[in-house]
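TASK: fixed-backbone design
INPUT:
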């Protein structure tokens, strides 16, 4: 009798929040896992609950389809509409109805405060496939491991770099022996974007982790180190998406794309240019400003980097040191000057400015915004989210009036968890209005 390989269903759950935008969001870890599973002979189905737009822009990003839903009890006092982002519930029900019963379900997770959408997804899955084990991984599962174990209803919770552990678990649960040595394979193989007939864009990770130690960032905890692919491997993947799949938009998911540029990003850019690869490249994660000299700025522009985002966070020298010391003001001015000389207009250079940090005053934010504007670049406000296992989380716990340690919903940047008399909601609204003008 012919052996039928096990069927694995992978799910990317809904986002639930006050606001969400598809800034080149795809479940890259889940797609790497799908690639691993297929290499090991498993049959794989993917349901991406976020694969739905109400409006799509020319570079592939856009607005998620959204449905207003009731706010969780913990957020009842927040005077804003709360929504579920992604496909309608009936569409998910229909997809599950037409899907072969899986042997195992794997589900990923995003931001910690998006867990209501994740829990609802798991609830629906459990009702459809009552006796099928569910494995949960991803950011929320890692940062809020005990919360996920206690409340998510997943049968197994995997934290950290979860592909190896998930693959091992799936092998055990299905009694299917693995065919490949899977250690570190995800960073050397392409994610399974073949599940998307017309994705509009693909995402690439040339590295995992970050060598910096920014006080507000959990990259070190999530990835436990810093690993990079070879420039040759990266260019080969870019060329594959551009030529074989006719993809024109590529978003880099790296936390440290520009670190040690002569060894990594500069060889990549030179080879992309020499091979005549025509893509629009995007950097939704803030780039390390310190590395942007004249050569690198020119190569970024020549290679086709359309969306440039710089991670300044603040122009306050003392706070720059306190939050990690990754950049100084003169380095920022130099980087903007080099990008402008390379051909970028000021408005094309977006600069992330963090607001709502513990004990941060509105005056400091106003000064930072004015400083960025003086260079001709465009300030972009990014609200601070208290992230578990970061250095600044301990300060945020002391500062916040909310129980951010035990209720992940209170880690939502949209509610300004660390607002105080020095930086109020009214101050925040004033800053937003000023930027709009």
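OUTPUT:
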């Amino acid at each position: 009798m012919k052996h039928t390989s096990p069927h694995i269903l992978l799910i990317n759950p809904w986002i639930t929040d006050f606001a969400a935008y598809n800034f080149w969001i795809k479940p890259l870890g889940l797609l790497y896992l799908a690639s691993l599973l297929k290499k090991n002979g498993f049959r794989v189905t993917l349901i991406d609950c976020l694969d739905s737009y109400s409006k799509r822009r020319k570079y592939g990003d856009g607005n998620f389809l959204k449905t207003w839903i009731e706010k969780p009890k913990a957020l009842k006092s927040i005077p804003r509409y709360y929504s579920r982002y992604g496909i309608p519930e009936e569409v998910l029900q229909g997809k599950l109805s037409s899907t072969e019963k899986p042997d195992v379900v794997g589900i990923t997770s995003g931001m910690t405060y998006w867990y209501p959408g994740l829990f609802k997804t798991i609830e629906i899955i459990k009702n459809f496939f009552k006796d099928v084990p569910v494995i949960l991984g991803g950011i929320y599962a890692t940062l809020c491991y005990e919360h996920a174990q206690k409340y998510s209803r997943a049968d197994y919770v995997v934290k950290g770099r979860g592909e190896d552990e998930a693959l091992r678990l799936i092998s055990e649960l299905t009694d299917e022996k693995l065919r490949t040595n899977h250690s570190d394979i995800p960073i050397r193989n392409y994610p399974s974007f073949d599940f998307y007939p017309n994705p509009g864009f693909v995402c690439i990770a040339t590295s995992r982790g970050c060598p910096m130690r920014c006080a507000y960032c959990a990259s070190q905890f999530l990835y436990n180190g810093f690993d990079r692919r070879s420039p040759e491997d990266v260019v080969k993947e870019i060329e594959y998406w551009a030529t074989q799949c006719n993809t024109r938009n590529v978003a880099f998911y790296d936390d440290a794309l520009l670190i040690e540029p002569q060894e990594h990003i500069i060889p990549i850019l030179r080879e992309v240019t020499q091979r005549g690869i025509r893509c629009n490249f995007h950097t939704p994660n803030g780039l390390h400003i310190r590395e942007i000299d004249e050569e690198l700025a020119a190569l970024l522009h020549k290679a086709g980097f359309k969306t440039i985002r710089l991670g300044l966070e603040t122009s306050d020298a003392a706070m720059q040191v306190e939050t990690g010391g990754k950049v100084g003001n003169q380095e920022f001015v130099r980087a903007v000057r080099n990008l402008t000389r390379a051909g970028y207009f000021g408005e094309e250079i977006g600069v992330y400015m963090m607001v709502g940090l513990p004990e941060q005053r509105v005056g400091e934010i106003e000064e930072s915004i004015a400083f960025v504007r003086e260079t001709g670049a465009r300030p972009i406000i990014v609200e601070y989210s208290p992230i578990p296992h970061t250095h600044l989380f301990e300060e945020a716990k002391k500062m916040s009036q909310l129980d951010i340690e035990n209720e992940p919903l209170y880690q939502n940047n949209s509610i300004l968890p660390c607002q105080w008399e020095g930086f109020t909601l009214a101050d925040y609204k004033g800053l937003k209005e000023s930027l709009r003008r």
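COMMENT: The radius of gyration is 22 Å.
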